[in-house]
Amino acid sequence: MHRFLLLAFLFLGNFIHAQYGKNCEIRQIKLNVFNPGLEYEMGVGVNSTLDFRVAWQVALEPASIEPTQNLDFFPAITTQYRFYHNFNGRYHRRRSIYGNSGNYIAPTATLFSPGERTVEGQLVDGVHGYGGLVYGIQRSYNSGISFSIDAGAGYYAGPFKGGIYPVVNLSIGFIISEKRWCVGL
């Protein structure tokens, strides 16, 4: 019976180690400078995180006739479920995975709350947003500087005719709080 319990304990310990904290940071808070705001990223698995961002964000004006030609700053909330697919390869090539430095694919959703505005002579009011899929890279350095960029496509919806348009997110900032749990540090 003791051997069975010891074996079960070792197996459970190995399973827990394999499921949590192998590659991803447990949590980190970043202060973004390019799109002013805060970002919180928490590890939810071996190679996956949830990323929440509240910021003034550069975005398309989807109520415009040519949305890709008109950019503006809007207050926004963005959520991504990031799956980092190259942590093991980076680690074996002796590249840093600190701060979730890696390449990822992520379903993303953003909600913009710009308030009342006039676009091409029309009064537009209300929130709008998009849901889509992006591919991105994130690099963080021991100095605390963090950089991420992702691009893809999303379906924009709101008080206008919806459509599929490009999505690009750029974050440049500083890690102000972290809970490290990476291999190879």
Order of helices and strands: HEEEEHEEEEEE
Number of helices: 2
Strand content: over 45%
Cα(first) to Cα(last) distance is: 39 Å
Regarding quaternary structure, what we see is single chain
What is the arithmetic mean of pLDDT? 81
Low-confidence stretches: 4-9, 11-21
Binned, the helix content reads 10-25%
Biggest sheet, in brief?
A: 8 strands, antiparallel, barrel
* Topology, number of strands: 10
The radius of gyration computed from the alpha-carbon positions, rounded to a whole number of angstroms, is: 20 Å
Strand order of the largest sheet: 1-2-3-4-5-8-9-10
Q: What is the 3D shape?
A: elongated
Descriptive notes:
- This protein is mainly beta and 185 residues long.
- The protein is 13% helix and 56% strand.
- The chain is built from two helices and ten strands.
- An eight-stranded antiparallel beta barrel has the order 1-2-3-4-5-8-9-10. A two-stranded antiparallel sheet has the order 6-7.
- The protein is elongated and about 55 Å long.
- The two termini are 39 Å apart.
- About 9% of the residues have low confidence.
